């Protein structure tokens, strides 16, 4: 009689972007840690240009433990983890990087801890319900990381994250953790899905503080490729903090969009002032020309900063895409500008003080620009 297969216990979600060369050796390391059965790997790939999704399909053809979700028009580690939570039938789910910085050797002990906790949850409420691999716990090491600035930044971010989540742990910014899948799915409706720090999102969303058990991690250097976390990672973290504090009052993306717009006003005034100083003031059309160039400069600045920060997880890349996105952004802003002027003029004619009328026009124009650009510049038709 054929031997019965071990039941599925653990799903390992690997959010990937250009990790083709890392997949095969990582599957081998996971098998060495967990054995040959009882687990599956969900590769959630953000349409990598290096063929990561095709490599995952090749692996899946010979290894039924490997599955692939290729995402078109969606990006970001947090949202990739969320899709992984919802795509598995395994009772436990882990999230880890595919770049070999996270050692799979911790997986068996994490799984054993959660299974033991589930067995005693009726007799002991202090049993851990999430396991976190920590770069800063006693016994951990970041010697091979070799990025002291990023290490210092992580330490500062951890101090802020602890205050938000109400959970005492050394590394709430870790990207390597495991929890019951049912718990993860129950939290999904409240998650923002923005950016990279999904653990922070989970801990802050839980209505009752989660009980955490940390495992010291020897944080290694990348096996190959380059880090996906660019200089906007601090902004990304701040966006996550905002989302979990004020995000229910003013949506996070709109707050970021408005902040960029305010900076664009400064750019507009600076360009306008410089051009008026440089141009012949006797020229009848001097102000109109300067104003037009200032508007174009501010729009271009706003597009660049929004593309780099506000829509970082949907960032447009490639000269053609950027030019089309810039043109679409200018068009939507022109429509928003018209709405701004029309509303402000109407309210001022109705007797509202000019400053309040102007602010109302700016708000209407900003909402319009945000809605249209989110849909037609960084979204999909």
Describe this structure in words.
- The protein is elongated and about 80 Å long.
- It has 12 helices and 7 strands.
- The longest helix is centred in the last third of the chain and has 31 residues, at 319-349.
- The protein is 52% helix and 10% strand.
- With 381 residues, it is of the alpha/beta class.
- Strand 2, helix 2 (52-62) and strand 3 (66-70) form a beta-alpha-beta unit.
Q: What is the strand and helix layout of this fold?
A:
Layout: E1 10-16, H1 20-34, E2 39-45, H2 52-62, E3 66-70, H3 77-85, E4 92-95, H4 107-119, E5 130-134, H5 148-165, E6 177-180, H6 181-187, H7 198-205, E7 212-216, H8 233-245, H9 252-278, H10 286-310, H11 319-349, H12 354-376
Parallel strand pairs: 1-2, 1-4, 2-3, 5-7
Antiparallel strand pairs: 4-6, 5-6
Main CATH class of the largest domain: Alpha Beta
Q: What is the rounded distance between the termini?
A: 54 Å
How much of the sequence lies in strands comes to 5-15%
What series of H and E elements makes up the topology?
A: EHEHEHEHEHEHHEHHHHH
CATH architecture of the largest domain: Alpha-Beta Complex
Strands, count:
7
Q: Do you know the CATH topology of the largest domain?
A: Spore Coat Polysaccharide Biosynthesis Protein SpsA, Chain A
In the CATH hierarchy, what is the superfamily of the largest domain? Answer: Spore Coat Polysaccharide Biosynthesis Protein SpsA, Chain A
Average residue pLDDT: 81
Shape verdict = elongated
Number of domains: 2
Helical percent range? 40-55%
Count of discrete alpha- or pi-helical segments spanning 4 or more residues: 12
Strand order of the largest sheet: 3-2-1-4-6-5-7
The secondary structure category is alpha/beta
Q: Largest sheet, if any? A: 7 strands, mixed
Low-confidence stretches: none
Quaternary class: single chain
Integer-rounded radius of gyration: 25 Å
